[in-house]
Amino acid sequence: MKKLTITRPDDWHLHVRTGAILKIVMPHTARQFARAIIMPNLKPPVTTVAQALAYREEILQAVPAGLDFSPLMTLYLTGATTADEIRKAAECEHVQAFKLYPAGATTHSDAGISDVKAAYPLLEAMEKNDVPLLIHGEVTDEACDIFDRERVFVDTSLTEIVRNFPELRIVVEHVTTTEAVQFVQSAGARIAATITPQHLMFNRNALLAGGIRPHHYCLPIIKREHHRQALVAAATSGNSKFFLGTDSAPHLTSLKEAACGCAGCYSAHAALELYAEVFEQAGALDKLEGFASFHGADFYRLPRNSGTITLEKTVWKVPAAYGADSASVTPLKANEELTWQIAQ
Ligand code: NCD
Ligand code: ZN
Q1: Domain assignment present for 322
Q2: For ligand 1, what atom is nearest to the CA of residue 262?
């Protein structure tokens, strides 16, 4: 296949930050995606509808003229979130969901939830107001091996949440393990998951074998090959519970190439192209449109997009970095070739 035209896709898990980084990354997302779920883990976090609306304006300012892109805002769930704010979020057309970060699980998660059970009254309010809950599914127990943190979260907290809130719509964000995939597959229709390009493309050797590669470091951490294969099978299966969420998470290059480097892969520069490579290798290009353009919209009960986007089989080289030297972001597959490109 030389050309692939699909309905305009959406990114159901995206970090765009603020200030200089926002200006670098926003054009990349807006040229391929019609909408994106914007993660609220700023410093300080986006915890109120008013903050989300202000952040939305800042994002819209960074969208290049002529591109039509809608940020779908989320609020950061903290111990101080009130039932009233949840009701306000439910009533606001620009706010789609709450994000639960276990405190300490990932970048800018210290304001997150340290005791999931203590947050149950808030989950009940979300269930009642029909606001989806997006979960970073990892335990933060220091004693738990980093490669086991998602599996243990699924077995403990997630299983309990799903059992206790039978009407709550939940997205298990960026699933990385066979266990999480199986959990989502066997749960009811209100439980879905996003999958990132890096977890579909790489196993942990790409992070650690032959040298440490900080640009492949993200959370949840990349796992063993059999997990990657389970993720590819789920993404390319046509099952509507699985949809595109890049988790594109830009950090300054200097903060990733460091003794204690930040977690997060930057993938927005070539998001759809990266997924297209994975789907092509799996012989499932015909399943890309559902994964990228239909399943997420249906889950969030938003209309599917009307326009289209065309990918062409054209080899191009990903630049070493985006942005100026003082504020540069290193993309996934920097200096490497990709085989699909968005048609101009
Ligand atoms: C994300 C970030 O940098 O904001 N990092 C990451 O490794 N994925 C946070 C997150 O989604 O966990
Ligand atoms: Zn994320």
Answers
A1: no
A2: 3
Task: Look up the CATH number of the domain holding residue 221.
Answer: 3.20.20.140
Please state the domain count of the chain.
1
| Residue 247 annotated as catalytic | yes
Domain range spanning residue 295? 10-306
Q: Which of 10, 11, 110, 247 is catalytic?
A: 247
State if residue 329 touches ligand 1 by the CB under 6 angstroms criterion. Answer: no
Atom of ligand 1 nearest to the CA of 263: 7
Q: What is the pTM of this model?
A: 0.98
User: Is residue 55 assigned to a domain?
Assistant: yes
Distance CA 277, CA 200 (A): 10
96 lines ligand 1 (CB under 6 A): no
Strand partners, 100: 135
Burial classification of residue 186, based on how many CB atoms lie within 10 Å of its CB (0-12 exposed, 13-18 middle, 19 or more buried): exposed
Q: Say if CB 305 and CB 10 are below 8 A apart.
A: yes
Cα 147 to Cα 143: distance, rounded to the nearest angstrom: 12
The DSSP result for 301-333, as a single string, is: T-PPP--EEEEEEEEEE--S-EEETTEEEPBTT
Which tens digits make up the pLDDT trace of 281-333? 999 999 999 999 999 999 999 999 999 999 999 999 999 999 998 899 999 99
Is any atom of ligand 1 closer than 6 Å to the C-beta of 245? no
